[in-house]
Design a protein that fits this description.
Oligomer: single chain
Shape: elongated
Number of helices: 4
Low-confidence stretches: none
Largest sheet: none
Order of helices and strands: HHHH
Radius of gyration: 41 Å
Mean pLDDT: 79
C-alpha cells in the first residue's frame, strides 16, 4: 500500500513539475536578444563641421536681424508715458494707501 501511495505521489509530482515545451525554449533566447537590442545605445554620426558652422552663422544672423528690428521700432515709435507714471498720480495713490494703512481713531 505504501509503495502504491509513493508511486501515485511521484506520478503527481512529475505531472505537476514545470517543464519547458520545445516551442518555449527558443522564445527565451529571443527575449534575451531583444533585451540586449533594447539596451543598445543609438550612436548618431556627428554632423560635418561645415554644416555646424553654417547653422551657427544663420542663428547669429537671425539674432542680429531681430535686434535691428527692435532698435528700429524703438527709434520710430515715440516714447509715451502711461498716465499712471505721472508724479501727481503716483503721489495720490501713495497717499491713499498710507491713509488706508493708518489705524482709524
Amino acid at each position: 500500500m505504501r509503495s502504491l501511495r509513493a508511486l501515485a505521489a511521484l506520478s503527481v509530482a512529475l505531472a505537476l513539475w514545470p517543464c519547458e515545451a520545445p516551442a518555449q525554449g527558443g522564445q527565451e533566447k529571443e527575449t534575451v536578444g531583444m533585451e540586449q537590442r533594447r539596451r543598445a545605445q543609438v550612436i548618431r554620426p556627428l554632423p560635418p563641421p561645415a554644416a555646424v558652422e553654417r547653422d551657427a552663422d544663420q542663428a547669429i544672423e537671425e539674432l542680429r536681424a531681430e535686434r535691428r528690428l527692435d532698435e528700429l521700432i524703438r527709434e520710430t515709435v515715440p516714447h509715451i508715458k502711461p498716465p499712471w507714471a505721472d508724479s501727481d498720480v503716483r503721489g495720490g495713490i501713495q497717499s491713499q494707501n498710507i491713509q488706508r494703512a493708518l489705524p482709524r481713531r
